Each structure stands twice: as structure tokens, then as C-alpha cells.
Amino acid sequence: MRSFRMRNLLSRVKKKTIKNRNRSCISITKELAHLVEQEEEEEEVNEEGFNIKSSAPSHTHGVQPLGNLYLNTSSTNSRDTGLGNLHTLSDELVLDILGFLDSTSLGVLASVSKSFYVFTNHEPLWRNLVLENLLGGFQYKGSWKSTYVSACYPSFDNFAVALGGFKVRDFYSDYLFQSWLCANLEMKPEWLERDNVVRKRGISVEEFVLNFEEPNKPVLLEGCIDNWGALRNWDRDYLVRLCGDVKFSVGPVEMKLGEYFGYSDQVREERPLYLFDPKFAEKVPKLGDEYEVPVYFREDLFGVLGNERPDYRWVIIGPAGSGSSFHVDPNSTSAWNAVIKGSKKWILFPPDVIPPGVHPSPDGADVASPVSIIEWFMNFYGATKNWNKKPIECVCKAGEVIFVPSGWWHLVINLEESIAITQNYVSRRNLINVLDFLKSPNASTLVSGTRDRLNLYDKFKNAIEAYFPGEIDELTRKEEERKIQQRKLSFWDSVADTNAGAFKFSF
Q1: Domain locations in the chain?
Q2: Environment class of 449 (CB within 10 Å of its CB; exposed 0-12, middle 13-18, buried 19+)
Q3: Of 203, 337, 417, 461, most Cβ neighbours within 10 A?
Q4: What's the number of CA atoms in the CB half-sphere (13 Å) around residue 195?
Q5: pLDDT per position as a tens digit, 235-247
Q6: What is the DSSP string of 360-397?
Q7: CA 302, CA 283: separation in Å to the nearest integer?
Q8: Cα 191–195–201 angle (5° rounding)?
Q9: Phi–psi pair at 401, nearest 5 degrees
Q10: Are the C-beta atoms of residues 357 and 437 closer than 8 Å to each other?
Q11: What top-level class would CATH report for the domain 190-467?
């Protein structure tokens, strides 16, 4: 199969990377053509290349990367002939247009040509139809199209499955192939080996505040949740039995835990749905009883708002490959994340360093980034090797807690099925930053986790002044002194460190 040919090319050709969805998946020159002829005879794999998961199927419809067309000079791209005059449109634009169609229209259009058959069966189109129309009331059937047909047209269930696997010859598309590739790519060892986070066990609260919270520096804490009931009890069987028919937030829909695990067992897609629920302890109080906030994070000043505080705690469950692309935590809060089952790869950049490939809007309201986490690793992770100041990285395992300081960019990917709890909080160390954020001119756009975005600043400030008279004025004075001292140090650094790199950490 040519998809497997691409696998071997990717795994054997050193220093070749997938650039983006509008360019060739890999630049293949004539001198590399002999690799294709040898691929079935040679099993040796270059460890510096990309590896496909051993369980990965070939692309459902036989889509091949555009590079294969250049090696097959006798072939024409059926993608272009089947689209007719629309062939000049990019694949992404074609799919955007198809996204406006309902299921019946997609089904009819699939019969027009082989090319339209491939495009109209693109899984994300059917995923959107399922999530928008079935609202979580579905049983995943191995593909999103089969799931939709099974729920809406039960009598056609088996027929739809049979139609879902037609192979189309000589169809070349980097955009469609990369979606499959990102869903089936192994994490490269070099993406996991860097571990430069500070790790601490048994430190005092005072040491944590002095060395990490005040200087706004990440740290991985070991041994501070060993007494959690969740660490002992939270496996699949226990959670499904405990939660029963309770539904949890999974992307834009609500699902029972049993339904979600049924989905996560079967799914193989670029961006798996992530269970991320801020009301888990209210929905199932025992879940809230089986963990407690680690001692380092118990000063949480948003608590003065009582039930009016913004969303602040979440249970997080997801399969391998799920996670969160680069973002900064809401409302200028700091956060902690405790892994209960599984493991997570973390990459963190300080507030003044925007991660490569990430493009926030000037006001920070929107962030443009690669479609998937794997795509970021493929295209941008390597760039960080040459930076004088590397990002903070680690793998956080069950029983470990990572502290994410206010304003830090971070990406997280589950390396296996994982369960975690995370909370955002406000302490005296970042209270002034949070207040400044809440009163920003575009607070109605930036503030999250509450319906009352415009009034949150006044409510929070008044409550703090009532509970802690004079505290805001004192912290404001200290913050001004800190900024003055920081400006002095920055000036000295600028004249003394002539070899400074382009990026600086803020601690």
C-alpha cells in the first residue's frame, strides 16, 4: 500500500518534515525513489524518522500524500478530475463548503464522482453532524459516519458501514492524508526525552511560595496527593459504577462515562474528544470527597465570591493523543494539575515567549495554532532545539502534580488513557494581576467561566476589601516596587549580557 510506502519514507529519510497543510507532506527528490522500491524488502527503521502505530489501518479511502504522485509519473490525480472546475480550490476550502451541507446532501454528492466521494466521507464532517444533531445521545460505532447513520437511520446501519470503505485509486492530497497521519503517528522518543522541570518532594509551603509561586516558576511536586482516595479508587469500573447515568461535559456535548469510554476505546482521530467537566463535584459529590487541594494551593482568594466564583476545577479524562493545544489559563489565574491515572507530556513557555506556530490576536481573545497537538510536534517542536532558552518540559505521571504559573503558555498531550484533576486559583502572589485582567477594556471578551463577565471585577474587588481590608493597597505597593526593581535588573542585563538570546524567561 502506498500509505505504508509513505510510512517507510517518513521513518527513513532524515531531517524531512511535514511543513503544513498547503504544501507537500514531504519533499521527495529523485535520488530517494529507490527507497520506495526497497521498502518491502527492508525492515530496518531509522529512529530519527516518523513511525506509524503498529495498529494503524491504511487510509480508509486510499488517499495518498502528494509526494507519491511525483514518484508515479504515469498517474493523474483523480482528486482534480473528480472535482471539475472546483479543483482549483484548496482541500480546506472544499471541506469548509461541504460543512454547510446536511447529511442527505453529503450522501447525494458522494455519488457524483470518486473525488466527491472521498471529500464527503471526510470524518470531521460527520463528527460535526453527530455533535450538532445528536447532542451526546449516541453510541460511537467506529466511525462518525457510521455513528450518525446508526442513530438516525437504524435500518441502513450495516449498509453505511459497507459503503464507508471504498478505495479510490490515484487520489493524492496532503491535507486529507495528514489528518490520517496525525491520528496514527507514534510520539517520537525525542519528543519525550527532554525533562528539565524542577522536581520537589516534601517541601514546605514557605519554600514553594519563595522559590516557585513568587518568581512565577513551574515545578513538579511529588508525594503531595498520596492520601487521595481518588488515587486508590479511580479506575474505569469504579467511576462508571459511581457515576451511573450522570452526564459529563465532552467538548460541545454531554455524555455518560460508559458512553465516553466506549468512544475512547474505538476512536482513532486527529483530535479526540476530551472529557473536561467543571461541575463534576456538584454532579457526583463523592468525586469531590475523594480528593483535597494540596497544601501548597489552599490560599484561593476567588473563594470569597462563594457560588459566584468563575469555574475553577475540572475532572479531565481522555485517551492517548487527546489533550490541550497551547493556551494560557483563564482570568490570569495560576493552576495545579494532578494526574490520577496515566501520564501526560507537558511543554510550557513563559508569558513573554509565544510558542512557535502559535499566533495570538493582539488582545489575546483568539489564538491561531496548528489543528492538532501532533501537528505542532511534527512542524514546530524541532525549532525549540536551537533556542538558547528552552521551554520547560516533563512527563507528569500518576501521583504527581504540576504547578502552572499565571500567564504561562502550555500544551498537554496524554501519552496513555489518563484521568486528572486540575484547579485554577488566585493567591496573594497574583491577585493584582487578576484584578488588572478583570478590569481590562475588553473584559467581556477575555473573562471566562462566568456569565457576569462585566461585573466580576467589582464583585471580586469589593469582596476582597471586605474580607481583607487594606490588602489590595499593600499588594499594589509591593507590585510597584517589584516592577521598579525588575526594570533596574533588565537594564543591567541588557548591557552586561551581550550574548543573550532572542527569548528570555521571566523568572
Answers
A1: 2-185, 190-467
A2: middle
A3: 337
A4: 12
A5: 999 999 999 999 9
A6: E-TTSS-EE--SSHHHHHHHHGGGGGG-SSPPEEEEEE
A7: 21
A8: 145
A9: -130, 135
A10: no
A11: mainly beta
**pLDDT (0 to 100) of residue 158:** 59
In single-letter form, the type of residue at position 185 comes to L
Q: Rounded to two decimals, what is the model's pTM? A: 0.83
Residue 422: name the closest of 283, 329, 351 by CA.
Answer: 329
Task: Determine the Cα angle at 199 with ends 193 and 204, to 5°.
Answer: 170
C-alpha radius of gyration, the chain, whole number? 25
Q: What is the pLDDT of residues 69-115, one digit of tens each?
A: 888 877 889 999 999 999 999 999 999 999 999 999 999 999 999 99
DSSP states along 191-205: HHH-----EEES--H
Checking if the pLDDT of 367 tops 90, the result is no
What is the C-alpha to C-alpha distance for residues 449 and 324, in angstroms, rounded to an integer? 17
**Sheet of 334-341, strand order:** 199-201, 219-222, 400-404, 334-341, 418-425, 313-318, 275-277, 247-250, 253-256
Cell of 297: 494551593
The percent of the chain in helix, strand and coil, each rounded to the nearest 5, is: 45, 15, 40
Tally the residues of the chain.
507
Give the pLDDT of residue 161.
52
DSSP 310: P
DSSP code, position 32: G
Cα(5)–Cα(201) distance, rounded to whole angstroms? 48
* Other residues' Cβ atoms within 10 Å of the Cβ of residue 33: 12
Helix 257-266 and helix 236-243, axial crossing angle in degrees, nearest 10? 140
**Are 160 and 150 a contacting pair, CB within 8 Å?**
yes
Picking from 247, 246, 316, 235, the residue whose alpha carbon sits closest to that of residue 275 is 316
Pairwise CA distance, residues 30 & 62, whole Å: 23
The whole-angstrom separation of Cα 501 and Cα 507 is: 15
- The answer to whether 400 and 221 are in contact (CB under 8 A) is yes
